[in-house]
Amino acid sequence: MNKVRLGFVPSHRYPFDEEWAIDMRKRCLEAMGDIECLEVVVPSVGLIHNGLVRDDTSAEATIDLFAQRGVEGIVIGTMTFGDEISAIAIAEALDVPVLVFGTKEGPFTEDGLRRSDSFCGTLSVTSGLYRHKIPYHFMGLVWPEEDVFAASLATFARACAAVEGFYGARVGQAGQRPERFETCTANEMAMSNSFGQRVVQIPLPELFARAEEWPADDYRMRAVLKEMQRQADCTACSEESLQKAAGLELALTAYFEERDLDAMALSCWNEMQERYGICACSTLSRLTDAGMMVACEADVYGALTMWVQYLASLEETVPHFIDWTIKHQQLENVFLAWHCGNAPVSLASSQGTPVIREQSIMSQVVGPEKAQGAIEFQLEPGPVTICRLVEYDGAFKMLITNGEIIHTDDLIRGSWAWVRVPDLAGLYRVLAEEGFVHHASMIHGDIADAVESFCNFAGIEAVRV
């Protein structure tokens, strides 16, 4: 699991109970230390008085520490009332996502005084963040030992990882979108202006030439072929098609490395079949499984959706680039999440063997000889999160929904899963009426809260269904 580096700001204001603040800081750090995905950076007792942020001097020292350590997010906790000026100065200087929480109130002193009055001070901090137009999320009032504390921090960490990787992302676009798929267009200037992203163009003739340069006896070619044959039944494909798939994989991997790409959108039909002679589906499957997100049909926003999900999972699992398709013929609130044969084989159901064969649709267009290379299987059951990024008139929004893959004994071509959702008619209505397209990204596990939090920090409208 990737760790996310968060800066912790234990905020305190005089004359509230400093001993209480010291103990609360200690309890928070102990609880944070138990969260596997976190690396916590906090000003030490030696750096600032008692390790508590209370004034301009301690804020400046904390800013320098966080900048040196490259924190990806800031957690402001009011140990007592908290000092709004120093906390806001830190958030403003670092320009990373911010999570705010207040600590619950302890027993009154013998004199009837409040030890912390944390919530009052928390409102001072949050109103200041709001006034300065700094995006933040409020966790609530908690004891650090409560489950909500660890859960909220883990979700925040995932959102921070997504923000960190999304801004400045470089997306390769290999070839043009299919001529009849206007839904796969992307606004490069909106991506650049909003997120500092760049689309790196890769001509298909150049890609094909690089793929064909690999000799069949190259050790890397042999290694890819051996791995493909270990992962799936390849007997339906010719040796020539398998070698072409291996060469294409090595060429695309080289582009990821040389062009410093975070994701890629590949034009996979039908120039791929007519000029190179295979379907790229299983190649996309293997690249995504290796942490190189590749979307079909030159869908740049689809590739970015995959990238967000992968980052928010802390790279623990990989997504599957899907089509929203049919309702189940009998089961209520169940739809088919499907694509031609590009799902990462690590997601395959334990029941059945993945098969690499001719792609079911393109074989009708170009013939089965040029359409070999799709990997087919049913996906492993379990909870999933499904997302889709779109852009209209320079404004971005993200569809976010949850479902659960259920196993069936159906025989269906491609890589696929039946997914049950709470309200399929409502989901379909949102997709149709909000301008979402037929492509999406689906990942095992529930990361919906993290993706929604990412959207809030990135200025993307979250459409949660």
Topology:
Elements: E1 4-11, H1 18-33, E2 38-41, H2 56-69, E3 73-78, H3 84-94, E4 98-103, H4 118-131, E5 136-142, H5 147-166, E6 170-174, H6 188-195, E7 198-202, H7 204-212, H8 219-231, H9 239-258, E8 263-266, H10 271-276, H11 281-289, E9 293-295, H12 300-312, E10 320-327, E11 334-339, E12 355-358, H13 362-366, E13 372-378, E14 382-392, E15 395-406, E16 415-420, H14 424-433, E17 439-444, H15 448-458, E18 461-464
Your description of this structure?
With 465 residues, the protein is of the alpha/beta class. It is built from 15 helices and 18 strands. The chain has a six-stranded antiparallel β-barrel with strand order 10-11-16-15-14-17. A five-stranded parallel sheet has the order 2-1-3-4-5, sandwiched between helices. α3 packs across α4, α5 packs antiparallel against α12 (300-312) and α7 (204-212) crosses α9. The longest helix is centred in the middle third of the chain and has 20 residues, at 147-166. The relative contact order is 0.10.
